[in-house]
Amino acid sequence: MVKHTVLVTGGAGYIGSHACVELLQSGYPVVVVDNLSNSKSESLARVEKITGKPLSFYQADIRDRKSLAEIFSKEPIRTVMHFAGLKAVGESCEQPLNYYHNNVYGTMVLAEVMAEAKVRQLVFSSSATVYGESASVQYSENSPLGPINPYGRSKAMIEDILRDLSAADKIIRAKLPWKIALLRYFNPIGAHESGLIGEDPNGIPNNLMPYVLQVAIGKLAQLPVFGNDYPTRDGTGIRDYIHVVDLVKGHLKAIEALESEKFASGGCRAYNLGAGRGYSVLEIIEAFKRVTGRKVNYKIVPRRAGDLAECFANPELALKELNWKVEKKLDDMIADSWNWQCKNPQGYA
Ligand code: NAD
Ligand code: UDP
């Protein structure tokens, strides 16, 4: 397959920067657009250091139509990997308009500019949060959707918009149909094995692994474990953790699928990216001690509003249609997260 130019929106962020590494190492020229609202350009300097290859970076907001159109006119973009967006569930409840504006409106502007530039190949960062409560704790792509917060709803709305765009192609018999992969991530953790790039959360982390890391390194005193009375094997919440490098490899597999016969007449399809098995919070704490030798102080506190007891992926469709599955184990995820944390105790600062 010819390695064409990929525009990575949100490429300076946690997952986007890992995607840039994987793309460059696989021979794709990379263009990044990021407004640096939740990242630093240092991550991109590190991407270049890891790969020994340059990328083009534009500091711009995806809602800025003029800047975006200029980038499309300058660069020979063929695929867009769309990571840019806001992602904190709690913050989305406090600032719903900001979330819908960034995520939904931002994606609309991006899609409009793409259509004008005749670029109709898109890999979108969706999330397992689009699923609603269901009878089974293992989620397949056809499990019922029902997000319960503005962040999750912004992802579900974007999925709807992109599905509608693709459906319209059939009605108007588009010559250049949209080819779209909606990738529903489970719980990405870990970092590049070099320890040069990783997750650099602002303030006190919301997510489990960054919190565990900051307790282990002594920045935070104690991990709050949100509930030990769930109907799970040890009472704590179970999630499907996935190494960020495995996750971004799934994006490259998605590009290959979009370029293949399977999508020859266009289409918009959702794929779960997860391992297909879950670990509880206490199992993560235990594994962390085994892998790093560090004990994580914790305290059981009441449940966090909106948390499911258990949630993990059925990843069979991604295996069948994208030829992708996770390769890394929980111990790799923990070892790589810890390596990043120890080498960068202040993140990119
Ligand atoms: P991140 O915050 O590290 O990266 C997002 C990047 O997008 C940041 O660099 C930020 O500066 C940029 N950005 C935000 N709004 C922008 C805008 N309007 N214009 C240009 N740039 C903008 O987050 P991440 O963890 O790398 O997540 C990437 C994507 O994956 C997001 O869309 C997120 O919703 C989705 N996702 C993340 C997780 C997770 O646990 N990290 C899980 C499921 C889905
Ligand atoms: N969790 C916890 N303490 C924390 C953060 C998270 O006990 O400080 C639990 C949370 O209740 C869930 C799991 O860890 O069961 C994963 O939470 P995270 O916020 O990382 O991901 P998500 O809620 O998006 O699945």
From TrEMBL:
Coiled coil: none annotated. Homodimer. It comes from the Bacteria. Residues 7-336 form the NAD(P)-binding domain. Keywords: Carbohydrate metabolism, Isomerase, NAD. The lineage of its organism: Bacteria, Pseudomonadati, Pseudomonadota, Gammaproteobacteria, Methylococcales. Pathway: Carbohydrate metabolism; galactose metabolism. InterPro entries: NAD(P)-bd_dom (IPR016040), NAD(P)-bd_dom_sf (IPR036291), UDP_G4E (IPR005886). GO terms for molecular function: UDP-glucose 4-epimerase activity. SUPFAM superfamilies: NAD(P)-binding Rossmann-fold domains (SSF51735). Its cofactor is NAD(+). Belongs to the NAD(P)-dependent epimerase/dehydratase family. One of its GO terms (cellular component) is cytosol. CDD domains: UDP_G4E_1_SDR_e. GO terms for biological process: galactose metabolic process. Its EC number is 5.1.3.2. PANTHER family: UDP-GLUCOSE 4-EPIMERASE. The gene is galE. This is UDP-glucose 4-epimerase. It catalyses: UDP-alpha-D-glucose = UDP-alpha-D-galactose. NCBIfam families: galE, PRK10675.1. The keyword DNA-binding does not apply.
